[in-house]
Amino acid sequence: MFMIHSCVYTEYNGESERRMANAKNRSHKHFRLDAVKIKRAQRVLRADTETETIDRALDFVISEHERNRLIAEAHDRFAKSGIDIKDVYGVLED
User: Fold this and answer.
1) Does any domain span residue 88?
2) Residue whose C-alpha is closest to residue 22's, from 35, 36, 7, 11
3) What is the pLDDT along the chain (94 residues), one digit of tens a residue?
4) What is the Cα–Cα distance from 45 to 85, expressed in whole angstroms?
5) Closest CA relative to residue 51, chosen from 9, 7, 4, 14
């Protein structure tokens, strides 16, 4: 089995805003990544470059994590609220 790797220099600003990093907060990194995955992600994210693809993917992961955290907090608040949930259709277990 062969794995295709490519070397990519990424730029990431660590912010959730949709703008490119400026020279002050760019970090020069060297990774060995699967070229096929990068191309697939590039198409999905509609990015022009591999660097932009990695940047958008990182932004997506960060925003997804934040969304999951907010959902978990809302779920906990709801569960602790003491609300009485009635099974009007009779499908929930006792």
Assistant:
1) no
2) 11
3) 444 444 444 444 444 445 556 667 778 889 999 999 999 999 999 999 999 999 999 999 999 999 999 999 999 999 899 888 788 887 877 5
4) 41
5) 9
- Structural domain count of the chain: 1
The structure tokens 């958008």 sit at 56
Please give the model's pTM, rounded to 2 decimal places: 0.61
Considering the domain boundaries, does residue 50 fall inside one? yes
Q: 28, 9 in Cβ contact below 8 A?
A: yes
Q: List phi, psi (to 5°) of 87.
A: -90, 85
Beta bridge partners of 31: 8
- On whether residue 92 sits in a domain, the answer given is no
Q: Which domain holds residue 55?
A: 5-80
Instruction: Specify if 13 maps to a domain.
Output: yes
Measured between alpha carbons, how far is 72 from 86 in angstroms, rounded to an integer? 22
